[in-house]
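The material for today's practical consists of a large collection of protein records. There is nothing in a record beyond a sequence line and a structure line. As an example, a complete record with its sequence and its structure tokens follows:
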Amino acid sequence: MVDTATPAAAAPQCLRALEHANHVRSARAELKRRVRAGRLSAAQVILACPWQARTMSLTELLASQRSWGRIRVRRLLLSLPVAENKQIGTLTERQRLAIAAGLSQGRGAPEADSAVDPGGRVGPPRISSSGGNRGSR
């Protein structure tokens, strides 16, 4: 017969695992709040790799920055040889330095040409009420 752990013996181990998971989640949430508030930069987190961030994905950390979403994160990571779902703790030193340099150079920032047109307006061009570019009649 196979020896199996009794439910009573496994309960403390499960509770410890849940406590540890909750501790890691709350520490990550605090880390992301500090990054979002600007008290800590994402580059600092990537270079230092604190225990809270070891198993966090790059996308999760980068998206926690103010004004960073999936598209901006993807734009940065496509310019570097790093996968979006790569865990911070598994990055090589070369990858860490490349990402930190990319963040400091603003590689994930949208191009200025697409944000503002020559007239100074932000967003898509307006269509005039006189019919626009319909051609002559």
